[in-house]
Amino acid sequence: MTVNTLALILDFDGTIIDTESPAYESTARIWADYGIEFPMDWWLQGMGTDRKSTWVQELENRLGRRIDQDSVMGERQRIKDRLTEDQPVLPGITELLDAAERRGIATAIGSSSPHSWVDRHLKRVGLYERFSHVVCRDDVGGVAKPAPDVFLRALELLGVKAELAVVVEDSPNGLKAALAAGLKTVVVPNPLVESLHFPGAYARYESLDTLPADQLLDLVFGDSN
Question: Does 11 participate in catalysis according to the annotation?
Fold first, then answer.
């Protein structure tokens, strides 16, 4: 049953931790090993979705031959893991969660990544317990953004109507998913998509610490507070 409360739903990759830069760099390194420049435009089209093995399939297409996908994907994952382990919580996240907690605003994660990835890194940076629910693609039959499923599931678990919730996203596909779920969305682009447009976003900031957390919550929730 839906109750009259407020909710803040955060994307994970590129929003809480910059995992997008390691994802890109690790994949580009693999392509470079095969003597091919990694196509940024192609990569950006899939950002925020579930790529799985699409990048290695694209590499095969451009090479014109088959490669050992398991070996290549394993090496890329090892590089990505190593680079991601050094990534801290992005600016403004902790302050935003603190402000939401003071106001009694429920919080959740809505991610296209699996729990094995999201939960691990949330625990690594000490934020796992800060969220009432962590919703990943595992929870919605593997459906990733730009489909709205993870956000709709988060709303269901939180017991909050879409008009009383706000999403923080970093990618165009994440924004599309949030808008499809009927959610007001604040965009803080990750470094790889800073030059892109985000039509439909309620607000856009270079960083979440651009303005004080309480001011941001006042802005996005308005008269709902």
Answer: yes
